[in-house]
Specification:
Order of helices and strands: HHHHHHHHHHHHHHHHHH
CATH superfamily: MFS general substrate transporter like domains
CATH topology: Growth Hormone, Chain: A
Number of helices: 18
Shape: globular
Radius of gyration: 20 Å
CATH architecture: Up-down Bundle
Helix content: over 70%
Largest sheet: none
Length: 408
């Protein structure tokens, strides 16, 4: 069917399925840090072991995302998304029964890493961009990303409640229940595969041609490099903030409530930046997010935390959290079109995940080395400010192929 033939019910159904899939995938993934102190005490793993598992998750996610993107562009999002949910469930089973570091690594490292390639932002944004008209694309991607962030407001308090009333294993079982909800959401959202692709003007591209074109574009390279810093900052916070607050003697509920606030305020930020991206410079908005996020990190870690300042930090950071997703996706479509959006987004995301690996593993390594997180947060602030300035210099002129299409 053609995009213009979709009813409002069908559009909202597709976007809702993609949003729920994204929401639960990311909500659980961002709540794993709540299990860290309890797993360290109960099964004898170290902070470095847990950090390595999360870091490996990000590397696996990043390494497999380009391949998954190519498959989604070639075969459709439905087989990719459904297989991804099943792998997510397998990873949570390993986590539930973990009694050694290797099971944690296999569960939330390898399995969840692969699953996120199939169910998280890259596939959800691909579904959204193909479903709505270009004039509404930024706002729609912002809305799906915003709803996607609500998973953290569900997963984090649920996990903390189950840990407090039972144990961390029961929290992992709770995650399994959420993962099962992802199956119908992935099936419904991937109905976007039935929409006819946009007509191609000129010679059709292959995936290799599209990748070569993107890597030859200076703006795309800048986008990917700056995206590295985004991953480093976000995963450092989700992985190590609960442990940092535990060291500072804070009540465990402060950490879970803070992560929930990140998810809640991300609803506002994601939609806001998606909406703004339809009206103002996407590169300037992206650069501003990186810089403001760095300033928030500096202000929080420069002073001893309190419950109030921690919750305010979560609200500020949440507003700046996933607003990058509709902006990055929108820039890629602007530069190269829709045909290989999943492929090119996946390659840029690989850079993001290298940063995520360093944020998770590097934070744990620095803590084990110095006994605190001081150097880690200072490095995150410094490179975040540099990335923001770098992003603002991005060349946003569409590729020559797209310019020729627009001229015809």
């Amino acid at each position: 069917m053609k995009k213009t033939e979709l009813s409002q019910f069908q559009i909202w159904g597709i976007l809702g399925g993609a949003a729920i899939m994204l929401s639960l995938a990311m909500g659980m993934r961002q709540s794993f840090g709540l299990l860290q102190p309890h797993m360290i005490r109960d099964i004898g793993i170290t902070a470095a072991d847990f950090s390595m598992a999360v870091a490996l998750q990000n590397i696996v996610w990043g390494a497999t995302q380009p391949v998954v993107g190519i498959w989604a562009d070639k075969y459709g999002t439905r087989p990719v998304a459904l297989v991804g949910v099943l792998i997510y469930i397998l990873g949570l089973l390993f986590l539930t029964f973990a009694d050694a570091a290797w099971m944690v690594t296999l569960g939330i490292g390898f399995c969840v890493g692969i699953a996120l390639s199939c169910t998280a932002s890259n596939i959800a944004m691909n579904i959204t961009a193909r479903t709505v008209s270009p004039l509404k694309r930024g706002a729609a991607m912002g809305a799906v990303s915003a709803i996607g962030s609500l998973g953290l407001t569900i997963a984090s308090p649920m996990a903390q409640s189950l840990i407090g009333n039972f144990n961390w294993q029961m929290a992992a079982i709770g995650f399994l229940g959420l993962a099962c909800v992802m199956l119908p959401a992935a099936f419904w959202g991937s109905k976007a595969d039935q929409i006819e692709p946009e007509a191609v003007v000129g010679k059709p591209q292959s995936a290799t041609d599209a990748i070569t074109e993107a890597l030859g574009h200076k703006g795309y390279r800048v986008l990917a490099i700056a995206f590295f810093v985004c991953g480093l900052q976000l995963v450092f916070i989700t992985t190590h903030l609960p442990a940092y607050l535990d060291i500072c003697g804070m009540d465990p509920t402060v950490g879970s409530n803070t992560l929930a606030l990140v998810g809640l305020f991300n609803v506002i930020g994601s939609y806001l930046f998606g909406w703004l991206g339809d009206r103002y410079s996407k590169r300037m908005l992206l650069g501003s997010i990186y810089m403001l996020r760095s300033l928030a990190l500096f202000m929080f870690f420069s002073f001893p935390p309190s419950p109030t300042t921690t919750l305010i930090f979560g609200a500020v950071l949440g507003t700046l959290w996933l607003g990058v997703v509709p902006l990055v996706s929108g820039l890629i479509v602007h530069l190269f079109g829709l045909r290989f959006m999943a492929t090119l987004s996946g390659i840029a995301f690989m850079s993001h995940q290298v940063g995520s690996f360093l944020g998770a593993w590097g934070g744990g390594y620095i803590f084990n080395l110095f006994g605190n997180y001081d150097l880690a947060w200072k490095l995150a602030v410094a490179i975040g400010l540099a990335a923001g300035l770098f992003q603002m210099t991005m060349n946003t002129q569409p590729s020559e192929r797209i310019r020729n299409q627009l001229a015809t």
